């Protein structure tokens, strides 16, 4: 299968490109910069130059492909306005990619987050939240999945709060980055709230499986660790960075504060049973031992 990939040099995207190529697919990957183009070409992908906001380029990429994996997201997390702009840009790109495939029965796999449900781990059957700071992302994903009725094999792979690789990435990575800047490892609330996680290589295998075989209009959970207590995550980061660990106000984390403070475990039981996905990488707490 010839697959058009956006976000192919990110924490998830790099492993996805490698996974696709290793399993006999060819990859056409979007690249905004010379650096990204070089990385993708060295990996073995063909490059299509442009950014996530170049909608004509996205249409052209989808038109040349047997399937699409949409991963690109502008990492503008500093303010609520920046996060909203990044979500709107992603949504516009997702809509264009989906529309380009209408009537073709070709697959498009997009990324979203696992939902949170009070009192239990969320499952693949739970809807994405339509309120809160990332509600716009849920709306875009739902609109894409609705194209299943118009001849698009649209699929969502829901990612946990931390996608990690060599101690980096996701919410845990943001905690570590902030700790390096502030001199302490802060966590919101009492630290007992749980964050799910997955190793990036395991996530990549699920994207490939979903592209190859998942039915139209379905959502799947790329969750290996159902939920680690945030304080346990902070303690490992503090030990590795030799920094103190303590509770801090939610506002410390900007627009992510309300999300960081929530208990949000997630299950992938249905994904494993239905698609045969078997995560094999190290757990988050194991992988954080690589932090330097």
Helix and strand topology:
Elements: E1 2-6, H1 13-22, E2 26-31, H2 34-43, E3 46-49, H3 55-63, E4 67-70, H4 80-100, E5 107-113, H5 135-145, E6 153-159, E7 162-164, H6 170-182, E8 185-187, E9 194-199, H7 200-213, E10 218-221, E11 225-229, H8 230-241, E12 245-247, H9 257-260, H10 269-275, H11 284-287
Parallel strand pairs: 1-2, 1-4, 2-3, 4-5, 5-6, 6-10, 7-9, 8-12
Antiparallel strand pairs: 9-11
Helix pairs in contact: 1-7, 3-4, 4-5, 6-8
Provide structural commentary.
The chain is α/β, with parallel strands linked by helices and 292 residues long. The protein has 2 domains: 2-162 and 197-225, Rossmann fold, CATH 3.40.50; 166-195 and 227-266 and 282-290, UDP-galactose 4-epimerase, domain 1 (Alpha-Beta Complex). The chain has helices spanning 13-22, 34-43, 55-63, 80-100, 135-145, 170-182, 200-213, 230-241, 257-260, 269-275, 284-287; strands at 2-6, 26-31, 46-49, 67-70, 107-113, 153-159, 162-164, 185-187, 194-199, 218-221, 225-229, 245-247. The strands form 3 sheets. It has a 7-stranded parallel beta sheet with strand order 3-2-1-4-5-6-10, with helices on both faces. Strands 7-9-11 form a 3-stranded mixed beta sheet. α1 packs across α7, α3 (55-63) packs parallel to α4 (80-100) and α6 packs across α8. The chain is globular and about 55 Å long. It comes from Lichenibacterium ramalinae.
């Amino acid at each position: 299968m010839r697959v058009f990939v956006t976000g192919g040099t990110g924490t998830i995207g790099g492993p996805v490109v490698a996974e696709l190529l290793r399993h006999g697919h060819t990859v056409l990957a979007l690249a905004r910069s010379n650096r990204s183009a070089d990385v993708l070409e060295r990996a073995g992908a063909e490059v299509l130059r442009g950014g996530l906001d170049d909608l004509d380029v996205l249409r052209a990429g989808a038109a040349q492909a047997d399937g699409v994996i949409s991963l690109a997201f502008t990492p503008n997390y500093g303010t609520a306005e920046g996060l909203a702009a990044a979500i709107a840009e992603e949504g516009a790109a997702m809509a264009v990619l989906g529309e380009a495939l209408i009537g073709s029965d070709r697959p498009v796999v997009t990324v979203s987050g696992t939902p949170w449900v009070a009192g239990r781990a969320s499952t693949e059957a739970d809807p994405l939240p339509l309120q809160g700071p990332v509600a716009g992302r849920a709306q875009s994903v739902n609109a894409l999945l609705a194209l299943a009725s118009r001849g698009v094999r649209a699929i969502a792979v829901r990612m946990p709060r931390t996608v990690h690789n060599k101690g980096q990435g996701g919410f845990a990575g943001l905690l570590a980055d902030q700790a390096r800047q502030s001199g302490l490892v802060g966590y919101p609330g009492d630290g007992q709230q749980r964050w799910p996680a997955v190793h990036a290589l395991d996530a990549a295998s699920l994207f490939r499986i979903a592209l190859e075989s998942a039915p139209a209009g379905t959502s799947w959970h790329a969750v290996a660790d159902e939920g680690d207590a945030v304080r346990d995550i902070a303690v490992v980061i503090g030990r590795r960075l030799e920094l103190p660990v303590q509770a801090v106000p939610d506002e410390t984390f900007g627009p992510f504060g309300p999300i960081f403070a929530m208990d949000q475990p997630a299950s992938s039981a249905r994904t494993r049973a239905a698609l045969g996905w078997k995560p094999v990488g190290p757990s988050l707490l194991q992988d954080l031992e690589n932090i330097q």
